[in-house]
Amino acid sequence: DRRTLPDNAIVLRSTESSRHSQQIGHGMELTMPITRLEAILSSSLNTARRIWNTLLAELVAIASPERFKVAVKDPAVYAHLINKNAVWN
Question: DSSP class of residue 37?
């Protein structure tokens, strides 16, 4: 089916295979296969990945969906995402 995502469309970055600095990210980054197709680069899935990977570690660590939703509505979170070019104002 064309509407089904492949199993490896978006995955949690493996800490063993990553050269990623823990000082920069939160360690729960999501990755997607590399592509140059504009349709993929501008997709909502890629946008969600970019926003998630830019969130602060304390937000990513919130286990409760209800608490997470409240926390991400803080204007400081949106300002952080704008500052890191994850979203545009």
Answer: -
Q: How far apart are CA 20 and CA 39, in angstroms?
A: 26
Phi and psi at residue 12, to the nearest 5°: -70, 130
pTM, entire model: 0.63
30 located within any domain? yes
pLDDT tens, the chain, 89 aa long: 556 656 666 565 554 444 444 445 677 777 766 666 666 667 888 888 889 999 999 999 999 999 999 999 999 999 999 999 999 87
Tokens 């926003």 belong to residue:
51
Sign of dihedral through CA atoms 75, 81, 85, 89? negative
Q: Residue 19 falls within a domain, yes or no?
A: yes
Of 47, 38, 71, 45, nearest in space to 57 by CA: 71
- If one counts the domains in the chain, the total is 1
Identify whether 5 is part of a domain. no
